[in-house]
Amino acid sequence: MASIKDVAGLAGVAVGTVSRVINHSGAVKPETRRKVEEAIKRLNYIPNEIARNFKMQKSKMVALLLPTISHPFFSELAYYIEDELDREGYKLMLCNSGSKPEKELYYLDMLQQNKVAGIVGITYNDIDSSVSTDIPIVSIDRHFSKRIICVTSDNYEGGRLALRELVRAGAKKPAFIGTVIPVSSEIMKRKSGFVQEAKAMGVDYVVYEKPDPIIDEDKYYNEFFMRHDDVDGVFATNDMFAAQYIERASRRGISVPGDVKVIGYDGIQSHAYFHPVLSTIRQPVEEMARTAVKLLLGQIGGESFHQDTYCLPVMYRQGETT
Amino acid sequence: MASIKDVAGLAGVAVGTVSRVINHSGAVKPETRRKVEEAIKRLNYIPNEIARNFKMQKSKMVALLLPTISHPFFSELAYYIEDELDREGYKLMLCNSGSKPEKELYYLDMLQQNKVAGIVGITYNDIDSSVSTDIPIVSIDRHFSKRIICVTSDNYEGGRLALRELVRAGAKKPAFIGTVIPVSSEIMKRKSGFVQEAKAMGVDYVVYEKPDPIIDEDKYYNEFFMRHDDVDGVFATNDMFAAQYIERASRRGISVPGDVKVIGYDGIQSHAYFHPVLSTIRQPVEEMARTAVKLLLGQIGGESFHQDTYCLPVMYRQGETT
Fold this sequence. Notes:
Chains A, B: Residues 2-56 form the HTH lacI-type domain. Chains A, B: This is HTH-type transcriptional regulator DegA. Chains A, B: It comes from Paenibacillus plantiphilus. Chains A, B: Keywords: DNA-binding, Repressor, Transcription, Transcription regulation. 2 copies of one chain form a homodimer. The first copy, chain A, is of the alpha/beta class. Chain A has 3 domains: 4-47, lambda repressor-like DNA-binding domains (434 Repressor (Amino-terminal Domain)), CATH 1.10.260; 61-152 and 286-314, Response regulator (Rossmann fold); 155-283, 3-Layer(aba) Sandwich (Rossmann fold), CATH 3.40.50. Chain A has 11 helices and 12 strands. Chain A has a 6-stranded parallel sheet, with helices on both faces. In chain A, helix 1 crosses helix 2 (15-23), helix 5 (72-87) crosses helix 11 and helix 7 (155-168) packs across helix 8 (189-201). At the A-B interface, helix 4, helix 5, strand 2, helix 6 and helix 10 of A face helix 4, helix 5, strand 2, helix 6 and helix 10 of B.
């Protein structure tokens, strides 16, 4: 393989000049640059970072797998993940893998082959058997059967907090509404926290769940309204569910927060231009993103972590719905 | 450099087996896989796709530069760009470059060095002198001094449409509100279309602009309300401006659409859970994304295009604000 000296020799310049051309650093006359580039081409010299990383079998790229970047929670997360990676000299590859396990498997393969240095994954697909512990992966929310570090918000505390805030706002019979997902995820603790706190406080409560995803939203909500017309508080598993519930409730003449207090989860509304401004359990998105990246880069650097789950504190944010 | 045959020889297996291990295709016994992997390591054999691409000086990666992925218009665009790239076997690198020209310059360098195959850029930074015509770049909305293909929505027609719809809704003195950006962008045509159509229809109108970005929003809107209290229609340069205007108008007791009809631009609301549902000029986001990718991959494949600007049709979407 041609060396930088060969290039310098052919171009009739100093090695330092070749280096400046390669690294786009320092001034090089256009004419000189052209000569160097021609020499690089003729000798098929491989100067770039990929080649260097490659020799070291190291990539400076991290893949982010998520259901869809068009969801506001994921796009905010992606923003901070990219920002944190950039600080550390890494680039982000983005993969929307919602209901496409084959895309996720492809990235796992890339990781096995060192084409990416690590993966941050928010995934609901059936890929458990393809995930292995000896490669750098950080999962958001989901647990795998193998030992994979998981970064999550304090869903259990979030559920407790939501119950308490609904009661404080006057609800006598609050309901949890959500779905049952087929993988083991920390987000199921939103319900457990809600239920445990209701029990601890001696509050009557309802749990309403259907298998994820909800195909027929009309059916989902109609059934809820029919079965539980005495509910006066709703803790929705996320803000979209909260917003959907409120829209459908208002069509039935149920006012929020007059008749029913509503709290969501996520905190996707970044400003108060659109209404209702949801009362919600706000996830610490930025901190989750930066923590995930730090843990991942730690793993890439050979660190091992004794803790499996990194659970970050949530906050109640009062809006117009409680 | 070691060949696949060397690896097969050292591992004591057939070349096909090595290939199956490398490509993760077909069944290989764990013990055999281990042997092959050991041989690969010992011989420092470089099997992977990056290396292959690399030899051909071709990367299968495209960089997307945008101000911030956390803005709903950009995240929707990114979703479709990734989807279209994936169909064609390309991966997406994501870069949030808002007010960080140095990040964009870094990616332009990567492109020069073939570390990425092409760039789709939505950029407002001062990078004009670093962009060159002989590398695959597609710009969204913005024009450069050199000949770079630009994909945009029909901003001029959007402006005309907005004026007509405001008038149809009863506005006698509509205003355009927006900012003046320091680069040459198609989005400035939103104003021109609005103004031309007002002139053509003989409608009295107002143009209210300040230099971008707006640092002091209070001042921006207060001045507008003070100077133009006779305005009964607003065409905002984008949906966020429309939402901001409505929020501030309502604080002053101005009702929308009762006193003032409002139309935005973009179409960032994907559902009707949050209010007001804006009347808006909807950009064909998906089509813009797929068109940008097709044009980019065409350039990467060596095609040349005679057209500079690809302008896609917009639609008026009636909401609750007209």
